[in-house]
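Recall from the previous lesson that a structure prediction takes nothing but the amino acid sequence as input. Here we apply that procedure to Ferritin-like domain-containing protein from Sphingomonas molluscorum. The sequence below is the only information supplied.
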Amino acid sequence: MSDDTGLDEVLDTQERRRADRRDFLRYAGGFTVAAAGAALVSACGGDDDDDGGSSSPTPTPTPTPTTSATSGISDADILNFLLQIEYLQAQFYALATTGSGIASTLLTGTGTQGSVTGGAKVTFSDDVVGQMAREIAQDQLAHVEFMRSALGTSAVAQPAIDLSVSATSAFSVVARAAGIIGTGETFNPYASDENFLLAAFLFEDLGVSAYRGAATLIKSSTLLQVASGIMSTEAYHAAMVRTTLYTKGSTNPDLITRADGLSNARDGYDGSSDLDQGISNRGDASNIVPTNDDGLVLGRSFKQTLNVLFLSAAAADKGGFFPNGVNGAVKTSDAN
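The prediction returns the following tokens.
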């Protein structure tokens, strides 16, 4: 058995603190945040014995974790990989909406802790875009808090993140690959509503596909519910961003061209030709939701996701938005 009392208290405190937010992790049938967190501690390495003997309770997920037979990595490793994407998104939205990053107490953990370079508050000209950005920022912060609490001492630290706007910054590199800017130019996602939406488009679609790919490797049914719940939230975020870009693109077609360019750049990095989709029309229909012929959203593997995050079609262990690499068991991409 595992002693989840301490974790329940932490999650209960978080729940009270977030009373004014949407309770994004409640599911039909009474699946609650506290229940998910307590079960996740067990899934990530609880102290349950299969031989019928009693064991001393442990408050942290330190014993042998559940492992996916397909990937050879544990469910905790998978969650830690996704946590680092949440760090990236949470920092971007926090900086864009407030001018400050997330609390330093949420950045510690195993591995090398890094700082965020760049970031600035956006002066939104469209109040709807500003409200949407603040909503997403709240959700991303909640994801980081929840995942760190569920992982306990197994949580990885935030690695170094590049959100700057120089000519060699991650944003400028991917914008150049997308044909948005030319050689030596810079892309500033904090300069306008449109630039902010393009950066959000880059991150949100990637997040959805990363969760979709990870879901196929998760062995714990409880963790699968948690991951699918967060993936659903990310999908809502992506749809919000894609819809807004598409709507604004009706009067500014160049915005759709730029979004499509970012989609093509993601495909170029991960080596696929049709995994990613822009927001251009599909015949006489819009393309708000990117799906295959069966109406299903496609997923990226861990390595494909890292190709995009590192902004490299070659095998790499660092670069792009994570200039010093990531923490945890999953940290390298493949050559495409």
